[in-house]
From TrEMBL:
Primary location recorded for the protein, binned into one broad class: membrane
Entry GO CC: plasma membrane
Compartment annotation: Cell membrane
Stretches of the chain forming a coiled coil according to its record: none
Protein name as it appears in the record: RDD family protein
Keywords associated with the record: Cell membrane, Membrane, Transmembrane, Transmembrane helix
Species name: Metabacillus sediminilitoris
Topology versus the membrane: Multi-pass membrane protein
Length: 176
């Protein structure tokens, strides 16, 4: 039985050693365009499913105007609120949405230890609105050195892989 506890202690020490090495010599790998696109598509599927399961039937039961073509109809406003609430709350409390969880990526702040409410709200409302109206806002992820979309640049955030790392030395070489 002592050998079992010894192995556990050794594995914990090894884990601590690996984490120390990672923090000193490695940076998280940045998430690129394609993985972010797939995560976003899954998020859209989640949000649209919630809207179709909850919002549309609820508005139908209440007999409210269910005219989805009018931008300021009650159902359009409710679905927009669900969309933004999903992205804001998931990013604030978990640093990732369900789509990002599936692909092992998350949002981090470049300037802050934890992402503040101001940063999240700016990123998700203002920045995402700009990126949606100017589709290049999303496409520039493929071309910027830090793999940031327009809303990431405005909010000083990045999307990284949680468990993939790159040597700091290699990043310096590739930047030159």
């Amino acid at each position: 039985m002592d050998a079992t506890f010894e192995n556990v202690e050794n594995s914990e020490a090894a884990y601590d050693q690996v984490e120390k090495i990672k923090s000193n010599d490695y940076n998280h790998l940045l998430a690129g365009f394609w993985i972010r696109l797939w995560a976003y598509l899954i998020d859209l599927l989640v949000v649209s499913s919630v809207n179709r399961i909850l919002i549309y039937p609820l508005f139908e039961l209440m007999g409210l105007n269910n005219n989805k073509s009018f931008i300021f109809s009650p159902v359009s406003i409710a679905t927009a609120l669900i969309f933004f609430a999903y992205f804001v709350l998931m990013t604030k409390y978990l640093n990732q949405t369900l789509g990002k969880m599936i692909f092992g990526i998350k949002v981090i702040s470049i300037k802050e230890e934890n992402i503040s409410w101001g940063t999240i709200l700016f990123r998700e409302f203002i920045g995402r609105y700009i990126s949606k109206t100017i589709w290049i806002g999303y496409l520039i992820v493929a071309f910027t050195p830090k793999k940031q979309a327009l809303h990431d640049i405005f909010a000083d955030t990045q999307v990284i892989h949680e468990k993939l790392y790159i040597l700091k030395h290699n990043q310096v070489k590739s930047a030159e």
